Amino acid sequence: MKFLFVGSSPDHGGAEMHFIAMAQALSEAGHGVEAMAHPRGFIADELERSGLATQRVAFRNAFDPRAFAVLVRAIRRQRPDALVANFGKDYWPLILAGRAFDVPVLLFRHRVKALKPTSNRLLPRLARGFFAVSDYARSTYLRQGIDADRVQVLHNPVDIHRYRYEPDIAHEIRESLGIDDDAIVIGYCGRMLKSKGIYTLFEAASAAMDIEPRLHCLWVGEMLESDALHTHAVAGRHARRHHFTGQVDDPARYYSAFSFLAFPSIAPETFGRVSIEAQSCGVPVLGSDVGGIGETFAHGHTGVLLPPGDSDAWKNAILRLCDPNLRAALSAKTRDFVTARFSYPVIAGQLLSFMETAR
Q1: N or C: which end of the chain has fewer CB within 10 A?
Q2: Domain ranges of the chain
Q3: 157 secondary structure, DSSP code
Q4: Which residues contact 247 (CB under 8 A, 6 or more apart)?
Q5: Which residues have a Cβ under 8 Å from the Cβ of 76 and sit 6 or more positions away?
Q6: Cα(341)–Cα(345) distance, rounded to whole angstroms?
């Protein structure tokens, strides 16, 4: 089959990673994949790096004539079996083009904020497939008035060949940060926002450090609202055990240096891609029981669900995972869990199965 992906977002977040991963997954499965992507965006860079044909153009609005002309030319040339969009700005252009050229449209929705009333009513009906990336997101869309038979769930795919434990990289990263190989490293990976629970994690990790001298915390990600956190960390009693990388080009490298991942969000997450990436590298997860996070790992088997914002519960869980036997038991199941549920062949297969049954 042939797919034309359209992604006008210039950002570098979970929805953008999903867009890239889905395109790569279908390409690896032997299908033809082309894309239109933002000229200065992360998506275009990554797709071109993967060897996928990408035109650097984005819709400024739903009726952008220049972008629409490029889309029409691409449809006429490629004759795709489906048009695919992840971002709201691209939904209506693809619906209109799909109707004009009789091409099915697949829309992925990552945000749980309600669409505008007209879009909320019509888009799921006009698209061949309207996909939520978690059961949590789907239940939210149903509460917003979308018919249950119009919303499918298709989780994020992950490249298990890219995301795997690399002992040499683990040693290199730890050595560069002054962390011993036998240290226990709590890993945080993502944007540093209050809603992500960074202050809960900092308080819990610092309290656990009072008890466990081998414990370190490695903070990987863009420091958006974390000035106060960084100030507290560098002035606190465990300043040398909190390590901040800032924004990095390839966060995948850092998973190998983690003993376990902390995913402490206090606001609902639509899914939680960082969790499956970490588990693919053999890293167990401590995750907040909020939004779709619980769908990304198996509580008691590859990680532990915890109450959001409860620093005492997080401290106790961190100390429990300082036990190497418990960590090893959880870690032993993580990669198989991700491979069976979120790997490229699995998610691409589910999408293709939907395409066959929805004809």
Answers
A1: C
A2: 2-157+343-357, 167-341
A3: P
A4: 221, 222, 223
A5: 101
A6: 10
